[in-house]
Amino acid sequence: MPVTLPDQLQRGPVTRRRRVLRVLLACTLGLAAFVYVNNSSWLAGSDGGGPLLLAHRGLAQTFDLAGVENDTCTAELIHQPEHPYLENTIESMRAAFDAGADIVEFDIQVTMDDRIVVFHDHQLECRTNGTGRVREHTLADLRRLDVGYNYTPDRGASYPFRGTGVGLMPTIEEVLAAFPDRELLIDVKSGDPTEGEMLADYLATLPAERLATLSAYGGDEPIAALSARMPRLRVLSKAIMKDCLLRYIAVGWTGSVPDVCEHRELHIPEAYAPYLWGWPNKFVDRMADKGTRVVIVAGDGGFSEGFDSADDWRRLPDGFTGSVWTNRIDRVAPLRDKA
């Protein structure tokens, strides 16, 4: 007669394995539920005011973005003008704020006499009647230029802004004086760290309440130099963006935000945004708690892509509470305001 173990001993290991599996399954489901709830934006609602609008270069002339690269002369590609404003002028910034912008972005360059002027290009030929690099001219030289001289919507058949832009290249001091209580985003166009230092020298003269309305972005080196001097200023560079988001992807499911994401300006391409934990509004709220502003940009983050039309606006997440990058504040602000 064969020898057998008691039934309860035969069943013991199987029963234990089943119990372990049930516990593991329960833990897995619980963790999945935690991750889902902890990163669901339906728990982070809008205050009803709509997103903030960031006007790129003020209210500016637009152009076809297809094939545009960093060295493309976009003044030769503009659409038929619908308004009289030229980018990076005080008039264009005022028009943007009047149209409904909450934040205005502008570009800066440094002159031969170490003044910070508001202008996009390193070279003068594309937009103006001047030649050479901005850095090779004094402020007085630049004041005499026509910053609308070479804008053409029809490949040189006409130049509708010639004569209208004389003396309109402002200094950074003039821009901040013109809009003393408005939010401004400064684009440091150079890759030279000394220009980040120069910007820091100027910003250090401003009171804390004014600095709270300013942010800056640009090349890795000048922004690193600027941030080292002014750690409370919101800043952005490619290196900062990569460091912050890679670390956030690793831990963000817990609701934690890495310290490297504090006091930043994050420009998130819409193509990649859904892969961020808590996108959209939980992510926006978490970053805001760290003093960081989140701006959504159109497409995959290519050259200056913005939410510029009604079709673009419909792609925004429902109830989005962050900021929106636009090249056509005049078209987009009414869409936000009637929503």
Give a structural overview:
With 339 residues, this protein is of the alpha/beta class. It has one domain: Alpha-Beta Barrel (TIM Barrel). It is built from eleven helices and nine strands. The chain has helices spanning 7-38, 90-99, 139-143, 172-178, 193-203, 208-211, 220-229, 238-251, 281-289, 310-314, 329-338, and strands at 52-56, 103-110, 116-118, 183-188, 214-218, 234-236, 265-269, 293-297, 323-326. Strands 1, 2, 3, 4, 5, 6, 7, 8 and 9 form a nine-stranded mixed sheet that branches. Strand 1, helix 2 (90-99) and strand 2 (103-110) form a beta-alpha-beta unit. Helix 5 runs parallel beside helix 7 (220-229). The longest helix has 32 residues, at 7-38.
Distance between the termini: 85 Å
Our count of helices gives 11
Structurally, the number of domains stands at: 1
What is the CATH C level class, in words? Alpha Beta
Would you tell me the overall average pLDDT? 92
The major pleated sheet works out as: 9 strands, mixed
Stated plainly, the CATH topology is called TIM Barrel
Secondary structure category: alpha/beta
The whole-angstrom Rg is 26 Å
CATH superfamily placement:
Phosphatidylinositol (PI) phosphodiesterase
